[in-house]
Write a structure and sequence with these properties.
The structure holds two protein chains of two kinds. Chain A folds into four domains: 87 residues, 2-Layer Sandwich (Uridine Diphospho-n-acetylenolpyruvylglucosamine Reductase, domain 2), CATH 3.30.43.10; 118 residues, Uridine Diphospho-n-acetylenolpyruvylglucosamine Reductase, domain 3; 105 residues, Alpha-Beta Plaits; 85 residues, Alpha-Beta Plaits. By secondary structure, chain A is α+β, with helices and mostly antiparallel strands. Chain B is of the alpha+beta class. In chain B, the strands form four sheets. Chain B has an eight-stranded antiparallel beta sheet. In chain B, strand 15 and strand 16 form a beta hairpin. The radius of gyration of chain B is 20 Å and the shape is globular. At the A-B interface, strand 9, helix 7, helix 8, helix 10 and helix 16 of A face strand 7, helix 6, strand 9, helix 7 and helix 8 of B.
Chain lengths: 483, 363
């Protein structure tokens, strides 16, 4: 618990009403987008300028008070979960678009600017910001940088790290770090890449310069139905082998298709698997690519292939996929969304194993898949009101992530580790790597005040959790005592 | 082989003996002078895994780039960041450099140097394609970061940190990269244009849906490469006009590898600037690349003048080839950034044995 004296000093640094500490005011900040994890914050600070952020950080640094940075609170890994005795530093009010340079194709924005707002502001110039996480209407660019957010178009246009040119960030001591530059690189270590996806553990972002791209001349989508999930998975590789990099390449399994169809009536064929393949670019190239894609899908055994002939049809094709999460949400009182990435060739094996586990736990799973980049989103259906079911869903989810690691993938493709997947970090990394992560943290924040306890597990915790990944008969943390 | 490197680094760590990490030696000129015993990664050679359908290639650090590129080309794919090889190809109009075959650019060197070729502004930099690394840090500890999948946000992105670190944080032993399909068609167009006009065009065109893949301006000629489906390239050509270039492949390869007489001049500076920055007015011996974002200058002007000019355009100046100025070849870092650099170096290489001084003179 923070002392009243500390809160008084904090209030002196910020405008009136920018510090919340009454219970009814701070409760809305008790969780981020993963509401299974909640913790009421002691105090919430809402600065409006970089100078105010710096003042808050300097105070916290001097008093050795921890700081949890938070953007729009749409994160899905409890990365912005409040920590006891810490200040929750909400950056939503730093929401100005400072500059758009259409000729240089850049936008300079504050961290609280919404992802979609950047594209809206750039639209009059025929430009847009490419990464489009599904929460793009609400999520903020500062949070996108902290999580290295992806979206539907990553395979072709990259993640946040590929689309950010420069950052201003503050260390816990309140010092300004300028990373990247207005050119295409900067001298020294690539700290811009290191900070991207660092989950608020290294510094607090106060300004982001993003790259803007010209709007593609045309985008067109093909929908294909398959009577076998493995065949659909193989078709994805075939499209890529044919030299086409689709802008979006999504897959849904039967349960996800049925749920989406019941919810938005997109007119999807009922099949074991659906692929949505979107191609964009120069007009002529799109025509060529669509022809190639159709040919490949046919050869891969698609039972039905449809091409959207206009924007209305394209929107309808996408409607089911975009509504997949809420649609699945109607099938059960609760669902738990996982976020592993696997080599695509492992898809049939992984889906078979997930189906077996689904039977074992008695919990249904719908699979939605960013198939192009191997990012799997199994949605585990459960009822939190039934005793023990949330725990069962969590255990099941954890096993899916460990399966992803086992086949050469990762426990998180785009949602981050946060609190949610911290145990599985022990499965993916051995002690020396985890130690180097702590070392990286120490290089920025030796007092470990920024977002403590998130993203990187303490080594001794890995042993306690028993979340051991035995690879080739070798335990990953042999030097640690077992309990 | 990796075990032998680990032993060697452990021993050097124990005695504080500086090591110079070397692949093919093709980029030995790049960075500040370092001293120590050569630690070669050449024996760590070979492609470990390549799945064209996954768009992922994993190879040992000492694998020659040329070998990787040939393998990829056989499957219609490429390294989209067009890493420079330097020194492998005979210079235009001159006999091959003797011993050139021993200076074969390696994958590890390409990633450690973090340099990218003409396609960089349109496709991304070396660091953008790094998915994972295996490495040995300055204590001799083998480590693995990232992986072999395209999307991965578990843990800090230490593998991208290695791109451009010039081997000062660890010796790369294996790298996994994202690869891309080779464009079906490629042509290059030339336009006679003054410097200001060329810079404007490069930026205007980059803001339109055109299949640009490289740009260059030198001696009054703007050269633009278009890549993609044949139909798209033809449509863009019809729109842009200009003169179709012959031997365009050779032109871009020589530019990538600095194998034209312009790049023999010393000192050769690389000014990275905001791409829209107008003519810098720092002399005529200039070659512009990367849509205006890189200005190569052969100039005897004082380092401070060039550094100020680059900083004034939102970027930085590097003494790329030639004798280093007193403050080192790379632009000095602001104090808070330098502190983070030192702290990282201290953690990954506590005795400062790896490529000591190569990046910044004091570590």
């Amino acid at each position: 618990m923070l002392s009243p004296a500390f809160v008084t000093r904090l209030r002196a640094l910020l405008p009136p009403d920018a510090v919340l500490f009454e219970r009814e005011d701070v409760v809305p900040f008790e969780s981020d987008g993963l509401s299974a994890y909640r913790n009421t914050p002691d105090v919430v600070a809402l600065p409006e300028t970089e100078a105010q952020v710096a003042a808050v950080l300097r105070l916290c640094h001097a008093e050795q008070v921890a700081v949890v940075a938070r953007g729009a609170g749409t994160g899905l890994a409890a990365g912005a979960l409040p920590v006891d005795g810490a200040v929750l530093l909400v950056l939503a009010k730093l929401n100005r678009i400072k500059a758009i340079d259409p000729l240089a194709r850049t936008a300079v924005v504050e961290p609280g600017v919404r992802n979609l707002a950047i594209s809206e502001a750039a639209a009059p110039h025929g430009l847009y910001y490419a990464p489009d996480p599904s929460s793009q209407i609400a999520c903020s660019i500062g949070g996108n940088v902290a999580e290295n957010s992806g979206g539907v178009h990553c395979l072709k246009y990259g993640l946040t790290v590929h689309n950010v040119l420069k950052l201003r960030a503050l260390t816990i001591a309140g010092e300004v770090l300028e990373l990247g530059s207005d050119a295409l690189d900067a001298p020294g270590y690539d700290l811009l890449a290191l900070l991207t996806g660092s989950e608020g553990m290294l510094a607090v972002i106060t300004e982001v310069t993003v790259k803007l791209l010209p709007r593609p001349e045309r985008a067109q989508v093909v929908l294909a139905a398959f009577d076998d999930v493995a065949r659909a998975g193989a078709a994805v590789g075939d499209i890529i082998a044919a030299g086409v990099i689709p802008a979006g390449l999504e897959m849904m399994d039967r349960l996800a298709i049925e749920a989406a169809e019941a919810f938005v009536h997109a007119g999807y064929p009922l099949a074991e698997a659906l692929l949505l393949v979107e191609v964009d670019g120069v007009n002529e190239e799109v025509s060529d690519d669509i022809a190639t894609v159709r040919q490949v899908l046919k050869a891969a055994g698609a039972t039905e292939i449809r091409t959207a002939e206009d924007d209305a049809q394209r929107a309808k094709f996408w409607a089911g996929r975009k509504a997949a999460f809420p649609a699945v949400g109607r099938l059960a009182p609760d669902y738990y969304c996982m976020d592993g990435t696997i080599p695509r060739s492992q898809l049939p094996h992984v889906l078979t194993r997930i189906a077996a586990m689904s039977a074992e736990y008695g919990l249904a799973v719908a699979n939605v898949f960013h198939a192009g980049d191997g990012n799997l989103h199994p949605l585990i259906l459960f009822d939190a009101n039934r005793p023990g079911e949330l725990e069962k869903a969590e255990t099941f989810g954890g096993r899916i992530l460990e399966l992803c690691v086992e086949v050469g993938g990762t426990i998180t493709g785009e949602h981050g580790v946060g609190v949610e997947k911290i145990k599985q970090m022990c499965a993916q990394f051995a002690s020396p790597e985890l130690q180097r992560f702590h070392d990286v943290k120490a290089a920025f924040d030796p007092g470990r005040l920024l977002n403590p306890g998130k993203a990187v597990p303490e080594l001794h915790r890995c042993a306690e959790w028993g979340a051991m990944h035995v690879s080739a008969g070798r335990l990953p943390h042999p030097e640690l005592p077992r309990f | 082989m990796e075990d032998a490197l680990i032993e060697r680094i452990r021993a050097a760590h124990a005695t504080g003996t500086p090591l110079i990490v070397q692949g093919g030696g093709s980029k030995g000129f790049y960075g500040n002078a370092d001293e120590g015993e050569v630690l070669s990664t050449r024996a760590l050679s070979g492609v470990v895994d390549y799945q064209p359908k996954e768009l992922v290639l994993t190879a040992r650090a000492g694998t020659p780039l040329a070998e990787i590129e040939a393998l990829l080309a056989g499957h219609g794919q490429m390294l989209a960041f067009e890493p420079p090889h330097y020194g492998e190809f005979p210079l235009a109009g001159r006999p091959a450099v003797s011993g050139a075959t021993t200076m074969r650019a390696t994958l590890g060197g390409a990633i450690a140097a973090g340099l990218s070729g003409p396609r960089r502004p349109y496709a991304g930099a070396a660091r953008d394609f790094v998915l994972g690394v295996r490495m040995i840090d300055g204590t001799g500890q083998p480590l693995g970061f990232g992986g072999r999948v395209i999307k991965n946000v578990a843990g800090y992105d230490v593998s991208r940190l290695m791109a451009g670190a010039l081997g000062t944080l660890g010796v790369l032993t294996e790298v996994s990269l994202k690869v891309l399909p080779k464009p079906a068609a490629e042509i290059s167009l030339q336009f006679e244009l003054d410097e200001a006009g060329a810079i404007r065009r490069m930026n205007e065109w980059a803001g339109q849906p055109l299949p640009l893949s490289a740009t260059s301006w030198h001696a009054g000629v703007l050269t633009v490469r278009l890549s993609g489906a044949a139909s798209a390239v033809q449509a863009a050509q019809a729109k842009l006009g200009g003169e179709m270039m012959k031997d365009a492949t050779g032109f871009w390869q020589r530019l990538r590898d600095q194998a034209t007489p312009f790049f023999d001049k010393r000192p050769l500076w690389r000014l990275a600037v905001r791409p829209t920055a107008g003519p810098l007015g720092l002399g005529d011996a200039q070659w512009i690349e990367w849509g205006g974002a890189v200005r190569w200058l052969a100039s005897d002007l004082p380092a401070a003048v060039l550094r100020d000019a680059a900083r004034g355009c939102g970027g930085h100046a590097t003494l790329f080839r030639g004798d280093a100025p007193p403050d080192g070849v790379f632009a000095p870092l602001a104090p808070p950034l330098l502190a983070v650099h030192r702290a990282l170096k201290q953690r990954f290489d506590p005795r400062g044995i790896l490529n000591r001084g190569r990046l910044y003179p004091d570590f």
